[in-house]
Design a protein that fits this description.
419 residues, alpha/beta, Aspartate Aminotransferase, domain 1, Aspartate Aminotransferase, domain 2, 2 domains, seven-stranded mixed beta sheet, four-stranded mixed beta sheet, 16 helices, 15% strand, AON_synthase_class-II, hydrolase, PyrdxlP-dep_Trfase_major, Aminotransferase class I/II-fold pyridoxal phosphate-dependent enzyme, peptidase activity
Length: 419
């Protein structure tokens, strides 16, 4: 019998093998200072493009005041216990009612965390006779939720309507045999590529196939739609989404999440979501803070309008300068370049050290080998100066990538690692 840890000693994984060179800089970096368009990294000011504070609410004066007063009033513990036992309050109910109204659903239920919330929602919605159909590029929380499923599940090619219909047909055939149903899962906005899920086309398929639609709209809530109610509102199909999920960790700049649906569905879920039944309730200070953030979203679209002014300036500037930003239809702004992992590390170091630009780097195995993805998150707090400086920096690093400068710089790293 092998030692359980033998595989860990032998193989650190595709990212783990770079830990000695990457940790503390490329992964697990430490940004310092107040959440803003400009923060500090290793003592230097950098323009930050990796913070999901879309609407700039993290340090909004009204929000900060509400957060501070809530902590003074409630502390960081209240209420203690799970919602079903001792963690339920009138403010939780108020937040749920206001969220349901905002996203045009009958009912809503507040969750303590987004990741475990969507995972548990999937688990509660399906049984062993049911079939799940989901996008191959789904977020890890969806994939982990699907892993809990004891029945059949099928992935479809990313946003590919032919593949969607093919897998719906397969799922429906199996569900007819097992006596189960079909759960279709899409994201409102895919957080890596920035593309919206094809919700309008998907709901049209309800005329042909029998399925229920769950949408994870973590990146769409607050940023898309006339009022900011998300991708469903943006595409005019919010009423056709059977279960709507969003997190407070993006536009709301906080912790927590919620699901919204018909009242009967929410009533079922709140009695069957294991991640909520057996975990501590969302703290009151966060509930009050969420109420203030939602108030600001409902009061005006100024935050969203400023965000999109910056999004359009950044994305149009990148395209005008010949950069490949894929087919994003959201605030998420991916920049695709060609190069190896060591070249990517040299490139990002140049960006941070010599240009004062901090953005997330994504490489294999998250994306195919030979590609480098610089993932940028514009916010309402960024300025036109930030954008102009970033565009100039990106032009400079692209030239160095193409002329082989980063390849030469990366060779020493490769030799050091014995590659």
């Amino acid at each position: 019998m092998k030692d359980l840890f033998a595989k860990i000693y032998r193989d650190k994984g595709p990212l783990g093998k770079w830990a000695d060179q990457a940790e503390g800089y490329f992964v697990f970096p430490k940004l310092e200072g107040q959440i803003s368009n400009r923060m500090k990294f290793q003592g230097r000011e950098v323009i930050t493009w990796s913070i999901n504070d879309y609407l700039g609410l993290a340090n909004n004066p009204e929000v900060r005041k509400a957060d501070e007063e809530a902590v003074k009033k409630w502390g960081s513990a209240y209420p203690m216990g799970a919602r079903m036992m001792s963690g339920h309050t009138e403010l939780h109910e108020q937040l749920q009612n206001e969220l349901a109204e905002f996203v045009s659903k009958e009912s809503a239920y507040v969750l303590n965390f987004g990741y475990q919330g969507i995972l548990s929602t999937i688990d509660a919605l399906v049984g062993k006779n049911d079939v799940i159909v989901y996008d191959v590029d789904a977020h890890a929380c969806i994939i982990d939720g699907v892993r809990l499923h004891l029945g059949k599940r099928f992935t479809y090619k990313h946003n590919d309507l032919d593949s969607i219909e093919l897998n719906l047909a397969r799922a429906e055939k199996i569900a007819e045999q097992t006596g189960g149903g079909v759960l279709f899962i899409s994201e409102g906005v895919f957080g890596m590529r920035g593309e919206q899920g094809k919700l309008k086309e998907i709901v049209e398929l309800k005329k042909k196939y029998n399925f229920r639609l769950l949408v994870d709209d973590a990146h769409g809530f607050g940023t898309l739609g006339k009022t900011g109610a998300g991708a469903g509102e943006e595409q005019g199909v919010q009423d056709q989404i059977d279960v709507y999920f969003a997190t407070f960790a993006k536009s709301m700049a906080s912790t927590g999440a919620f699901i919204a649906a018909d009242k009967e569905i929410i009533d079922y879920l709140k009695y069957n979501l294991r991640s909520q039944m057996f975990a501590k309730s969302l703290q009151m200070s966060l509930v009050e803070g969420a109420l203030k953030r939602l108030e600001l979203l409902r009061r005006s679209t100024d935050f969203k309008d400023k965000l999109w002014e910056n999004v359009n300036a950044l994305q149009n500037g990148l395209k005008d300068n010949g950069f490949d930003i894929g087919t994003t239809t959201s605030c998420v702004t991916p920049v695709y370049l060609k190069g190896s992992i060591p070249e990517a590390m040299a490139l990002v170091k140049d960006l941070r050290e010599n240009h004062g630009i901090f953005c997330s780097i994504v490489v294999y195995p998250v994306i195919p080998k030979g590609l480098i993805l610089l993932r940028m998150i514009p916010t309402a707090t960024h300025t036109m100066e930030d954008i102009d400086l970033t565009l100039k920096a990106f032009s400079a690093i692209r030239e160095r990538l193409e002329n082989g400068t980063y390849k030469k710089l990366s060779q020493a790293l490769m030799e050091k690692m014995g590659e």
